[in-house]
Amino acid sequence: MMKTTPEHNERIRTMKFFSVYPHYVSKVEKKGRTKEELHQVITWLTGFDDAKIEEMIDRKATFEAFFKEANLNPNAELIKGVICGYRIEEIENELTKQCRYLDKLVDELAKGKKMEKILRSN
Predict the structure, then answer these.
(1) Which Gene3D superfamilies does the entry link to (predicted)?
(2) Which of 81, 104, 106, 113 has its CA 20 to 30 A from that of 34?
(3) Please, what is the average pLDDT of the chain?
(4) Where are the domains of the chain?
(5) In terms of Cα–Cα distance, which of 76, 93, 78, 79 is closest to 3?
(6) Is pLDDT above 90 for 3?
């Protein structure tokens, strides 16, 4: 299993969703994708609708709170590969793994993958 350090996991736990969200938006928009598509990806992973995503931003929720309230898609475990130097399927810390799921989906969106591939719907 890929070991993340306790310090790394703590940094992920306390990181604020609202502070990372604008980077997600600019990353996908720079590559010709839309905020709506980003929300579609976030909704698929978390079960959050647009109002809930906005609430998380307004509340300045940490990633810990964000994923605690999420209803993670059962197909999330199909998200594999390397993101931020870590092989997702080998990350032991559950919250860190969930954050990397989101990072990977945003990355795939920005790279122009088809939505049905991103959403693991064959």
Answers:
(1) uncharacterized protein sp1917 domain (1.10.8.290)
(2) 81
(3) 94
(4) 6-111
(5) 93
(6) no
User: What backbone phi and psi angles, to 5 degrees, belong to 94?
Assistant: -60, -45
pLDDT digits over 87-113, tens only? 999 999 999 999 999 999 999 999 999
| DSSP class per residue in 41-88 | HHHHHH---HHHHHHHHHTT-BHHHHHHH----GGGGG--SEETTEEG
Output the six-digit token pair for 81.
Answer: 């590969």
- 3/14 Cα distance (integer angstroms): 19
Sign of CA dihedral 72, 73, 79, 84: negative
Say which CATH class 6-111 falls into.
mainly alpha
Alpha-carbon separation of residue 45 from 48, 73, 87, 100, 120 (angstroms): 8, 5, 18, 11, 10
Residue in the block written with tokens 């010709």: 32
Tell me how far apart the alpha carbons of residues 93 and 26 are, in angstroms, rounded to a whole number.
Answer: 28
CA distance to 7, 31, 67, 117, 119, per residue, from 38 (Å):
29, 12, 17, 14, 11
